């Protein structure tokens, strides 16, 4: 064992997929730090959660400069060092857009912030490089050529191996590819997007041509619709839940009282029954496996506020193989919200995964 390395990585029964068109293999389920790691969870519990993930075959950890005002990166870097994990065993990703200060150049996707923000993220992580650096949001105030050139500079410096996008429109991703192709530079390889049973239009329809044309892959977040798909909100908002603790979800909570919100809860009840009766599992694991079942999903980002929660969510590896075509069809009948295919006007259509 190399000096300083205390734990060897064992993939166990974890499945791995390529991240978009790249040669980088990532676990089908990864661990993210939004709201929890460094935020609502600090200290030893962060270490326990990451250790459990690593020992279960998860070697990809996702964070961002904005998560917990930089503390998510700090905590993640600290734990990697304390656990003695080999850097080459890991896939570390972070994201840039919202900086930690209020200066005019401390946020956005200017060349200045991309380069200096990357350096500051690496300093907080205590690492020499990350595997993938994401543009956390698009920036309409900056020319796309400046964005593409800046991320390529970061790659050339060895501070990241790849770059990717998060919450970009298909048009913006397409523009980045056109600019990169024109300049002979590296284009974004993946998109980190929201994808769950109630949020499907963008990942399943808008991005469909990009899957076909560029081999784009997604790193999916909010796969449980912030907990709605777990069934915990079927009878109101429990004390201590995400909707109760974080003010940012007030609009979501208010929406549950409206007709559309009540219809979603009705569907969650039906999904719960299907999960229990046919798969002997929970709606949580069903929802996670459902997103993983999409072949354009490179990885599903799990969130966890405790070791117990992560242990339960890791059971998704047992549920995933059970999602047969028949089960998927039953889910579709309950959801009744599958995006309509993109009009091809007589040209060859895309298959169910957005490919020829």
TrEMBL record:
SUPFAM superfamilies found in the cross-reference section: NAD(P)-linked oxidoreductase
Question: What superkingdom does the record give?
Answer: Eukaryota
Give the species.
Amanita thiersii Skay4041
Which molecular function terms from Gene Ontology are attached? Answer: oxidoreductase activity
Gene3D superfamilies in the cross-refs: NADP-dependent oxidoreductase domain
Going by the UniProt record, its keywords in alphabetical order are: NADP, Oxidoreductase
Sorted alphabetically, which InterPro entries does this protein's record hold? K_chnl_volt-dep_bsu_KCNAB-rel, NAD(P)_OxRdtase_dom_sf, NADP_OxRdtase_dom
Q: Which residues form the NADP-dependent oxidoreductase domain?
A: 31-335
Q: What is the official name of this protein in its record?
A: NADP-dependent oxidoreductase domain-containing protein
Identify one Pfam family in the record.
Aldo_ket_red
């Amino acid at each position: 064992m190399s000096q300083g390395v205390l734990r060897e990585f064992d993939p166990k029964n974890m499945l791995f997929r390529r991240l978009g068109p790249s040669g980088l293999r990532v676990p089908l389920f990864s661990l993210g730090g939004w709201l929890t790691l460094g935020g609502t969870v600090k200290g030893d519990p962060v270490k326990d959660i990451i250790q459990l993930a690593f020992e279960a075959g998860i070697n990809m950890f996702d964070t961002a400069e904005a998560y917990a005002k930089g503390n998510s990166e700090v905590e993640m870097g600290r734990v990697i060092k304390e656990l003695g994990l080999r850097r080459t065993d890991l896939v570390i990703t972070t994201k840039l857009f919202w900086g930690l200060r209020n200066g005019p150049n401390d946020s956005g996707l200017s060349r200045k912030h991309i380069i200096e923000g990357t350096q500051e993220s690496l300093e907080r992580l205590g690492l020499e490089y990350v595997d993938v650096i994401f543009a956390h949001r698009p920036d309409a105030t900056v020319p796309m050529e400046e964005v593409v050139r800046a991320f390529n500079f970061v790659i050339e410096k060895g501070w990241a191996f790849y770059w990717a996008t998060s919450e970009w429109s298909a048009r913006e991703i397409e523009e980045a590819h056109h600019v990169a192709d024109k300049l002979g530079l590296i284009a974004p390889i993946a998109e980190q997007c929201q994808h769950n049973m109630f949020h499907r239009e963008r990942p399943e329809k808008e991005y469909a041509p990009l899957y076909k044309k560029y081999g784009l892959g997604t790193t999916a977040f909010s796969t449980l619709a912030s907990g709605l798909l777990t069934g915990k909100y079927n009878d109101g908002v429990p004390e201590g839940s995400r909707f109760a603790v974080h003010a940012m979800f007030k609009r979501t909570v208010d929406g549950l009282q409206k007709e559309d919100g009540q219809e979603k809860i009705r569907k969650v009840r039906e999904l719960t029954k299907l999960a229990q009766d046919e798969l002997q599992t929970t709606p949580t694991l069903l929802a996670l496996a459902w997103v993983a079942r999409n072949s354009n999903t490179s990885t599903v980002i799990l969130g966890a506020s405790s070791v117990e929660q992560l242990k339960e969510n890791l059971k998704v590896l047992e549920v995933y193989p059970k999602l047969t075509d028949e089960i998927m069809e039953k889910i579709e009948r309950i959801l009744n919200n599958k995006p309509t295919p993109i009009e091809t006007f007589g040209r060859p259509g895309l298959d169910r995964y957005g490919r020829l």
